[in-house]
Amino acid sequence: MHWLDQNNCTIGRGATSTLVLDLPGISRSHVMLQPGPGGGHLVADLRSTNGTYVNGLRLEQVVPLRDGDKIELGDVTLTYRCQQATETGAPAAAAPGATSVQIHSGASWLLLLDLIGHTTHTHQVGAEAATADFKRWLELVRPVLLRSGGTINAYLGDAVFAYWREDRHPADKVGAAIAELVRLQTVSPRPFRLILHHASIRISGGLQGESLTGSDVIFLFRIEKSTKNLGSTCILSEAAVHSLKLQSAARPLGRHPVRDYPGDHAFFSLSAG
């Protein structure tokens, strides 16, 4: 355990680094953690030879760290811990008293991409091989999200949470991205589920990056857990189907309960075509 203070913390093989890790794959000056305004830290790669990965994604710019983020340097994985609490299974919300500003309030498409059986796969092949598989999967799905204008809000261990704002992105472009992701499910190195919902949410910005709030954000994660027994790798809410005008293409999966949300809810599926 290495305690961070209000000074910059450099990590590398060099003797002048704040935290010296003289191990293969790590550069003399590899990465720097810098205190952010109001608490927390920012992380920046120092042009290292092998790069720095945060939650499986190669670091290409300075980004804020969240409690529990995994920082990979060579063969070493560091876990960043801070006192900000997050709700289990959902993206981090702003900590009480943290400075934030509302960026947007309105309709958005909310997407969760979730690897299937990641924990079992890790036990079978080992952590190193499972991490490599996860990175290959990210390299497959991430470009689809970015090309379509989607914003990746959080990496959640074995899942990706992303969104499109309806006021910025046309429905046909989002629909094309979803169709491409469904096609990728047939060639992906690891099987994954796709869950899509459409709802009005609030987006705020602060030290920890963008925070998405609203009951429908939690609803998306409840959908993921409540529909696992349906046997489908593509789950669309009724609102998502109507917003993308997919009524003729989507296959009904019936109406089902969702924990903490009264009544039964209609879900649909898409097939690669």
What's this model, at a glance?
This protein is of the alpha+beta class. The protein contains 5 helices and 17 strands.
Describe the structure.
The chain is of the alpha+beta class. The protein contains five helices and 17 strands. It has helices at residues 118-125, 127-147, 171-184, 215-226, 238-243, and strands spanning 9-12, 19-20, 31-35, 41-45, 52-54, 57-58, 63-64, 70-73, 76-79, 100-115, 151-155, 159-165, 192-206, 209-213, 234-237, 251-258, 261-269. Strands 10, 11, 12, 13, 14, 15, 16 and 17 form an eight-stranded mixed beta sheet that branches. A hairpin with a 3-residue loop joins β11 and β12 (159-165). α1 packs across α2 (127-147) and α2 packs antiparallel against α3 (171-184). The longest helix has 21 residues, at 127-147. It is globular and about 65 Å long. The N and C termini lie far apart (50 Å). The model is unreliable at 92-100 (pLDDT under 50).
User: Which value, in Å, is the CA radius of gyration?
Assistant: 20 Å
Structural class: alpha+beta
Strand content bin: 35-45%
Mean pLDDT: 86
Q: Enumerate the spans where pLDDT stays under 50 for 5 or more consecutive residues.
A: 92-100
- Please outline the major beta sheet: 8 strands, mixed
N-C termini distance: 50 Å
Number of helices: 5
